[in-house]
Design brief:
The protein contains 5 helices and 6 strands. It is of the alpha+beta class and about 170 residues long. The strands form 2 sheets. The protein has a 3-stranded antiparallel β-sheet with strand order 1-2-3, with no helix packed on it. A 3-stranded antiparallel β-sheet has the order 4-6-5. The protein is elongated, with a radius of gyration of 33 Å. The N and C termini lie far apart (about 90 Å).
Length: about 170
């Protein structure tokens, strides 16, 4: 028969089993009434947690799947007798040209042109930053093109249209 410990006997009170085979283990003595009282005290918190979990699950379920297509465009100078390897002739003018073309591609006129040609998703064109936002380093003539849409075909079509726009502007 379990014996109640020397504490007040409230929820969480412990007792040591007097049976010879128990090995002196401690067990919690909480009655069903005490457990019901604990649940009643915390019912508002439980309902709030359940409501937030249900809302989060519903939001994740209802969010449309987004597909993305991205790539990096490398601007190179034409081959010449001085620089037979076009990658060895990277200069600041190529970086400036890449930045200018990226700005043009993000302009409202270019976005309208992409939409008229059948681009259904959103896109982003920006110079590749080799460091961070606080200390940007645009030391290479690289431009990242990213297209996002609700379908994979739409994302790929928008990406291809933006790349075609970049190629025609060069």
């Amino acid at each position: 028969m379990p014996l109640r410990g020397s504490d007040s006997g409230g929820p969480g009170a412990t007792a040591t089993a007097a049976a010879s085979g128990s090995g002196g283990r401690q067990a919690l003595l909480v009655s069903l009434q005490e457990m019901a009282a604990l649940v009643r005290r915390h019912i508002a918190a439980i309902l709030i947690v359940v409501a937030i979990a249900a809302w989060a699950g519903y939001s994740l379920h209802r969010a449309p799947t987004q597909y993305q297509d991205s790539g990096t465009v490398v601007f190179t100078a034409p081959t010449s007798t001085d620089y037979p390897n076009p990658f060895a002739s990277l200069s600041d003018t190529l970086i400036d040209a890449g930045g200018t073309i990226a700005l043009y591609a993000m302009s409202p006129q270019a976005q309208q042109q992409i939409r008229q040609e059948g681009g259904a998703g959103s896109y982003d064109v920006e110079l590749v930053n080799s460091y961070n936002l606080e200390y940007p380093d645009f030391s290479d003539p690289y431009v990242t093109v990213t297209a996002t849409a609700v379908g994979p075909a739409q994302a790929q079509r928008t990406f291809n249209l933006v790349n075609r726009l970049l190629a025609t502007e060069l």
